[in-house]
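Our consortium's second objective concerns turning raw sequence data into structural hypotheses that experimental partners can test. To show how far this objective has progressed, the report includes one record in full. It was chosen at random from the queue rather than selected for favorable results. The single chain below, 229 residues long, was entered without modification.
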Amino acid sequence: MSKKSIARLAGLFYLAVVLTGIFNLIYVPSQLIVWGDAAVTVNNILNSEFLFRLGIVSGVLCYISFFVLPFILYKLFKSVDKNYAFLMIALAVVSVPISLFNMINKVDVLTLLSGAEYLKAVDTEQIHTQVMLLLRSYNNGISVVQIFWGLWLFPFGYLVYKSRFLPKIFGILLMIGCFGYLIKFFGYLLFPNVAIPLFVELPASFGEIGICLWLLIMGVKDKPAQGVS
């Protein structure tokens, strides 16, 4: 398989990660979850249960795609620096089992709202509280796994920067994006009452979406010219 074909395959899997991730992590919660009102949240989930289930499926597909992606990228970048390419795989792949296990929290929400006979002994208000705790626990899990979503971007960005067959600007954005993720996690953990500025997330967003579209549309040169970035 040529480098251009490998690049486009990587872009395709990256696009799957981006689209399913946005749907699961941003769109579905924005439609269903009202953090200040458990009753409204539960009612939203019950009325749009298929959307909630679709979010879970989308999340699972996102993490499966994210598991495959770094191995494809390894084929693309191993000639640039095999050690950094291996580190990129390790930091990305370690996040996948954590992410999948964290999804249990959302499945448990469905169990609580299933109307099963054994749940009739539990007060409605208690069920609502449990649902919100599970949703908050899921978000906490996402916060933790973001450490690895950030860390893998540094070796990935370095490889892009050194490759000479991809624009260096994407490599710079990805490496800066690594620290954006870490700032977001440690800032939230250490200073929970301080709002993290939105611009902290922008380098990672621009870098990931940019490299995704570049790989998918432009691909790479099979034989990079010396000095070309």
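The partners drew two points from this record. Confidence is low (pLDDT under 50) at residues 224-229. The first helix runs from residue 3 to 32. Both points have been shared with the crystallography group to help prioritize constructs.
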